[in-house]
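S.,

Sequence below, as promised.
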Amino acid sequence: MQLIDVFRARKRIAPYVRRTPLVQSSWLSALAGGRVSLKLESLQRSSSFKVRGAFNAVIARLERPGRAPVQLVTASAGNHGRALAAAAETFHLPLIVYTPIDAPQTKLAAIRAHGAELRAVGRDYDDAERIAKTFAAESGAEFISPYNDADVIAGAATVGLEIVEEAADTDMLIVPVGGGGLISGVATAATSIEPRCEIVGVEVEASCAFQTSLRAGRLVEIVPGATLADGLGGNPDPETITWPMIQRLVDRIVTVSEPDLAAAIVGLIDAEHVITEASGAAGVAAAMAKRVDVAGRNAAIVVTGANIDRARLAALLSAK
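The prediction came back faster than expected:
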């Protein structure tokens, strides 16, 4: 993927997404000793950055010469499914979304509300993805991965483009990592414009497939554990295009604990009045827990989404 693909994606999706705010956080800046800004994709349509890649992927397919896709299918922990359901509804395309059985109800309800067929049958994300890909292969449906798709990545990359346009002196980007689509896109956009910008990924300790793989020098399969950050759990596709991009463009990946995530969710509400899910708070958790040293830096953290179940949020706030 090249920078021109990111600009093309931005043009495609402009009518359907928001240019989200990049706001300096006095709270995190004081805590971390650097200038820390938050890219609030939690305020994006569908309350997640995923809408960028979903709309770009659907529109790009509709632009292809020949027959448009008849049936779309995907696997999702929730946010991608919701975003793709919104895109499919907009362009009147049928969509089946496979999710884990225990995906957050707020995400499942939104998928249904957009008219997609929801199949919450996976034991976990990895299982949901296997089922979805098998269905696509057997039925002829077009599978759109949440991360292993060039158009999805190009759409996500527009997040990075907006950051460097608004804050050209940003010298560190901190990005949550699940399947790697967001950080691959953000890193491509940012380093194409400012090669010296440091790219730091954040995984959860319970499911750190890319950090483990970077240490091994090859993509390895892990056994994911339970985590508050449902959007960051699971293994990437063994043939994912994000792996070589991460190897080439990401400077390092750190991990955060479950208490780190909980503290970040509560801290964002207390200090910034920002609601976020655990996946969205991972970058903030890394800065708060000093897993990333941002002292003296101009850092931007991507807050990726806000789709947290009310009961889970209430429990985290009451445990404060």
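Residues 204 and 256 are 5 Å apart (CA to CA).

Coffee later?
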